[in-house]
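> forwarded from #structure-qc
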């Protein structure tokens, strides 16, 4: 049995290789999403504002909103109303074939000045906050210590 020897793994195929490969794959996926997200959030500003257009070639709605409810960039958005601390009503433009309750909106805190614990939540169902309007998305922002905290956020409806 002396001819059977145990080979030690080389550094390339060692136990940490799988973790390294998974980490590299995750980093690549994040980079790809950043590029896709950059394209999605940048066409036409809301008509009643001085907002910049958002190029959103494949998005039905895309917007970046300041904590005071003013629009930074938008596409497919008619207006934004600040309903109270951390509560925003986003009225959408008429988009043929769009049923708001069938959409899956993506909303997230936006910008470096946003509190690090900020969360953002979107509701496509009509809410009392926005007078039960069927063409309006309600967005809530806040933190654990202040559930209704004003914050900048981005919204995307693919």
């Amino acid at each position: 049995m002396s001819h059977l020897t145990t080979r030690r793994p080389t550094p390339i195929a060692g136990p940490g290789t799988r973790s390294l490969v998974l980490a590299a794959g995750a980093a690549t996926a994040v980079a790809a999403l950043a590029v896709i997200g950059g394209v999605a959030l940048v066409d036409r500003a809301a008509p009643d504002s001085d907002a910049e257009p958002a190029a959103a070639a494949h998005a039905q709605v895309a917007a970046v909103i300041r904590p005071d409810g003013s629009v930074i960039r938008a596409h497919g958005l008619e207006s934004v109303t600040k309903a109270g601390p951390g509560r925003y009503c986003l009225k959408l433009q008429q988009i043929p074939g769009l049923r708001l309750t069938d959409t899956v909106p993506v909303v997230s805190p936006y910008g470096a000045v946003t509190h690090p614990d900020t969360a953002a939540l979107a509701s496509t169902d009509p809410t009392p906050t926005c007078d039960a309007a069927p063409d309006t998305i309600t967005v809530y922002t806040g933190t654990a210590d202040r559930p209704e905290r004003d914050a900048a956020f981005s919204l995307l409806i693919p």
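QC bot note: The CA atoms of residues 3 and 32 lie 50 Å apart. The chain has two domains: 11-40, 52-157.
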